Amino acid sequence: MAENRNTSDLDLRSEVLASAARVHDHLLGGHHGFAFDREFAQAHSSAVPLVRRLLRLERDFLNDAVLMMLRRGIRQFLDLGAGLPSWGGVHDVASYLERGTVVVHVDHDLAAVEHGSLLLRDSGSGHYLHADLVDVDGVLVTCAGNGWLDLDRPVGVLAVGVLDLLGAEDDAERTMTRYAAELAADSMFAITHRAPGFAGPHRATAASLLTAGRGSLCHREIAGVRAMFGGTTLVKPGVVALPHVWPGLRPRLVDPAVPRDAVLAGVSVKRR
């Protein structure tokens, strides 16, 4: 479980702005944020209920994807755009179900990496890497060089709630296809992406809340999300709107307040 250390252990001299990672943690019921993170969320109060529901929807999918990967024998995970480790996160679920499972959390937000490293410093199986997820070579070389991931064995790659934060110039499709090409056979991939109408009339406010005011969201239809699974085979029925009951998993309660087709998702396997 992610340890709830006191945030006073952190060096806040450079912290003057809200962090998307900590705002998301706050909306999911975590306690790792600061006053300015909570104030930022409050300033976007009209979108808070919807964004909280969307984050929970994505968290449920994340849990399902980790369970699917564990059942297929995967014991090492690469969590792209990880944010903070928290209850129900990748390390929390994977290490609880299979002791010794390794999780590498990648985030470009230095504040999130420093905070996450502090929370997991005694775990022995959770690591944080300060990197841009589009730097595929840099991420994989560092993970292998540090002995965190064995790239000759399957890896579970999770890109949940992050790819629509990338700009068009970052080419999310090419990035994910590169990860698939570089990783071992039987690796698995789980991706979510918010659809164009994900927040209805609250779209602009919700986008600001999700990015902590530091960017915009790039939306895609099903075909665009499907293209991100290049080089792999989608688990049936392919890219779907959440919530969805995946094979062998129990159905979850459906929140009627979440817009229909707000979040698209899929899981895939790299075949031999």
In short:
The chain has one domain (about 15-270): Vaccinia Virus protein VP39 (Rossmann fold, 3-Layer(aba) Sandwich).
Would you write up a description of this structure?
It is a single chain. This protein is of the alpha/beta class. 35% of the residues lie in helices and 14% in strands. Helix 7 links the parallel strand 4 and strand 5 (188-194). It is globular, with a radius of gyration of 17 Å. Strands 1, 2, 3, 4, 5, 6, 7 and 8 form an eight-stranded mixed beta sheet that branches. It has a single domain (13-269), classed as Rossmann fold (3-Layer(aba) Sandwich), CATH 3.40.50.150. It is built from nine helices and eight strands. The model is unreliable at 1-14 (pLDDT under 50). It has helices at residues 20-27, 35-43, 48-71, 90-97, 110-119, 136-145, 172-182, 203-211, 222-226, and strands at residues 76-80, 102-107, 126-130, 156-159, 188-194, 233-234, 240-241, 263-269.
